[in-house]
Structure formats: structure tokens, C-alpha cells
């Protein structure tokens, strides 16, 4: 609707010329409308990316980090606009976005590290743009989160007990030192980790758990904006520990399986 109005803004000017008493949109208001449409286009494109399917499968968690960072960078740029209307609007949007970002940025960051095409590269690229001089501290924090998560999985995996002649390097160290996997359009990250399970037994288990984390509550079959009005992630759900969410999801699968087999 707004785009259509912009396409026909000259018609509104003609109305003003013919009827001087008519109330029409000013040039400044048109400029601001164009800015708002630009805002909305960014969010629409990102939402479409988040709600589409890849082949017959849902998107995995590694897809989200660069898109979310791009939105963050756009918001930072918009807050620096010399137009007070634009900057104040962007400040409000950025405040709400960063409330989400500060609570949730670790999971998509870890997921993208587990993408063998990028590993630490995307984190090392985006964080300096987002955090300037504090970037190295945030990068180190993410790496520490990855190591903590890896250690938790290593305790679960009974095969991690060192044996004579076993490589002393962890899966994580070996993985990060290996060259990046080449980019290709049909890359299947879940299949990559399945194939490389013998090489990275602990890290592959961690990757399966992280990449399966649901990053959106909107299905690909429904309109994203209509769904957002109907469904919300509650504060209770957001505050659950990852282990609790995993247990609930497993229980749901078991119950569904029991019902289908009965």
C-alpha cells in the first residue's frame, strides 16, 4: 500500500495544484514515507528468509546470524540519520531489537561457528562492525561459550575418555584449524555433520543439538506477519534453560510417537 502511494505521489501534487484547499502530503512527509518503506523492506526480506524452507527441510539455526546482524547494522545506521524523525524512530526500534539481541545472540553465533563454511569468520567480521573497540571481548566471550558447551557434551559422551595413542586435541580444536568448507548452493549442513561424525564425535553431537534449536515461531506455510499477531513466545518460554527446552522437545516427540503407534 505504501509503495503504491509512493509510485503515484505526483498525482497527489496535481490534486494540490487543481484544488488549493486540498490537504496533501508535503515533500518532507514523502521523504519520510520513503524512509519508512525502506525500513519495512529490510524487515520483510529478512522475515521471508527466516520463514522459507530449504528443499523439504526447515531452516537450521546457522542461517540466522548474518541476517540478524545485518538488521542490527541497519538500525545503527538509521539512528545516525540527520532527520530527527528518522533517528527517533530508529532509536525506538533499535532499543527493542537490542533487548532481543542481548538475550539471544549467543545461540545464532554458536550455530554459525558450527557451519564449516564460516566457523569463526562471520563472528569476526560482524562483531567489529557492531561493537567497535569492544569487539575482541565479545568474540572471546562467544568462543568461551562454545568451549563451555563443548565441554558439557564431552561429559555426556562416554567415549571422550582418553586412551593410549588417542589424539590429545579436542574435536573443537581440530575443527577450527581445518580449512573452511567450499561454498556451494546445495550444501546440507546436517548431512555434513552426519558424514563427519567419526572425525568429530563430540562436536557433531553438539552441532545436532545447536542446529536444531527453533529460531522462529512462524511456519513457512503461514504468513509471517499474520502469524506474529496470533502467536508470541512467552516470557516463560524465553527464560527456560536450553536443557529444559531440549527435554520438553524430546518428551513431545515421545508422546507424539506413542499416540501415532496406538
Automatic annotation (TrEMBL):
All residue ranges annotated as the HAT C-terminal dimerisation domain in the record: 171-255
Domain hAT-like transposase RNase-H fold: 54-153
Gene Ontology molecular function: DNA binding; protein dimerization activity
Name this protein carries in UniProt: Zinc finger BED domain-containing protein RICESLEEPER 1-like
Species the sequence originates in: Raphanus sativus (Radish)
InterPro entries named in the record: hAT-like_transposase_RNase-H, HATC_C_dom, RNaseH-like_sf
Entry superkingdom: Eukaryota
